[in-house]
Amino acid sequence: TRRRGDALRAFHAAIRSHPAGSKNPAAKEQAQGVMLKVLTAFKSSEIEQAVNSLDRNGVDLLMKYIYKGFEKPTENSSAILLQWHEKALAAGGLGSIVRVLTARKTV
Amino acid sequence: MAYHSFLLEPISCHAWNKDRTQIALCPNNHEVHIYRKDGAKWSKVHELKEHNGQVTGIDWAPESNRLVTCGTDRNAYVWTLKGNVWKPTLVILRINRAARCVKWSPKENKFAVGSGSRLISICYFEQENDWWVCKHIKKPIRSTVLSLDWHPNNVLLAAGSCDFKCRIFSAYIKEMEERPSPTPWGSKMPFGELMFESSSSCGWVHSICFSASGARVAWVSHDSTLCLADANKKMAVASLCTETLPLLAVTFITENSLVAAGHDCCPMLFTYEESQGTLTFGGKLDVPRQSSQRGLTARERFQNLDKKASSDTANATLDTLHKNSISQISVLVGGKANCSQFCTTGMDGGMSIWDVKSLESALKDLKIK
């Protein structure tokens, strides 16, 4: 359907335009906001397919955004992020979480 | 797979003698214990007590049968067997932090020690003074050297460090050896020359290994990655972000295949595809025991859900042979070109011997290239 296609496109766009390496806190903050909006736009049943459309680097990046999102919870954000976390973990394994902890360039 | 539980504490490090009848290990203290194989049992035959701090590295030279040990007491000792007693000779490393790893060179006329002093001590025997002397490789190392491996030409040395980099240095000692011939890593090799440096990964480099030919070097880092640099491809680096917990030890078993292990407590196979320059995961090598699967009652399911937020009983116990992280892998038979048997030791105090042929037949999808 049209809405699902839009969400998936927005998702890939958000992944591609990540500002990792940027030292600009405002730019990073904005990117986090956009990503959270995009992740929220998905229906629970569509999350797995979206995650599986990512390559290894994309899954690692998604995991970084998820943990960043956990740091500043809004009313419903953690519940949504936990659903994404479950699917991202299945795709990236514990290694993707390790790389969130060891990353020197954060999202 | 033969598993022997030596200790209830971690085995800090180990080394085998040439014919694999004896193993020297540090039982998480200041000593080195040597065990000899006695049929199916292991008997302790020697206790080497000289270090004043934990022994962090042991290497056993196969031809000259000498042991070298290093420890947190900032010292290294070369041990020679006189009759039935191991006699130590102190080697002054001139470091002010703990020594962390030690390796004999292939010709056994030098050894290298990595330390927290952010340098590598290259030690060789000076005949006139009847004394081991050492030279330092310092630049551009910025943190503790955790692991070392020698190139087969007895000159080049790979070092993995806590500054997130893998480097290859020349450890050419003009006082005691011929000038080395050119290698794919370069032709000019004055002492301390940096022949290769990886770009930063994001994790401490725990273990590093040259392939049998010396044309490739592989390393594992704390960010759960495995990397390989190929000198025949202009030192191009292939890397793999693994799905596992960080790996602590890696070795080549053929020129294209690697076995690595770490905090997931089981050895795993990785394959390097030269034509594409890629590393891929080839599977876990621990054949799981057949665990009895009994059905859960509704009450047990609910209790699990309440306690662990999950209703399945898997992962309640470790199915792997090692019950804690594997910290070291050594090749037993076949060398790094055609390994048919390798050994792992870990923080569970256990030592396991793995037979490659048995693994290949037990794990149907395993492809060792």
From TrEMBL, chain A:
One example of a Gene Ontology biological process annotation: regulation of actin filament polymerization
The subcellular localization recorded is:
Cytoplasm, Cytoskeleton
Say yes or no: keyword DNA damage present: no
Keywords associated with the record: Cytoplasm, Cytoskeleton
Q: What is its main location?
A: cytoplasm
Q: Which GO terms describe its cellular component?
A: Arp2/3 protein complex
Family label: Belongs to the ARPC5 family.
Q: What does the UniProt function comment say about this protein?
A: Functions as component of the Arp2/3 complex which is involved in regulation of actin polymerization and together with an activating nucleation-promoting factor (NPF) mediates the formation of branched actin networks. Arp2/3 complex plays a critical role in the control of cell morphogenesis via the modulation of cell polarity development.
Return the protein name: Actin-related protein 2/3 complex subunit 5
What gene is this protein translated from?
Arpc5l
From TrEMBL, chain B:
- Please state the protein's primary subcellular location: cytoplasm
**Keywords carried by this UniProt record:** Actin-binding, Cytoplasm, Cytoskeleton, Nucleus, Repeat, WD repeat
The record's listing under SUPFAM superfamilies reads: WD40 repeat-like
Residue windows of the WD repeats: 48-82
Task: Tell me yes or no: is Cytoplasm among this UniProt entry's keywords.
Answer: yes
Pfam families for this protein = WD40 (PF00400)
- Source organism superkingdom: Eukaryota
GO molecular function, a single term: actin filament binding
Q: Per its UniProt record, what InterPro entries does this chain match?
A: ARPC1, WD40/YVTN_repeat-like_dom_sf, WD40_repeat_dom_sf, WD40_rpt
Q: Name one GO cellular component term.
A: nucleus
Query: Gene3D superfamilies of this UniProt entry?
Result: YVTN repeat-like/Quinoprotein amine dehydrogenase
Annotated function: Component of the Arp2/3 complex, a multiprotein complex that mediates actin polymerization upon stimulation by nucleation-promoting factor (NPF). The Arp2/3 complex mediates the formation of branched actin networks in the cytoplasm, providing the force for cell motility. In addition to its role in the cytoplasmic cytoskeleton, the Arp2/3 complex also promotes actin polymerization in the nucleus, thereby regulating gene transcription and repair of damaged DNA.
Q: Which family does it belong to?
A: Belongs to the WD repeat ARPC1 family.
Q: Please report the name of this protein according to its UniProt entry.
A: ARC1B protein
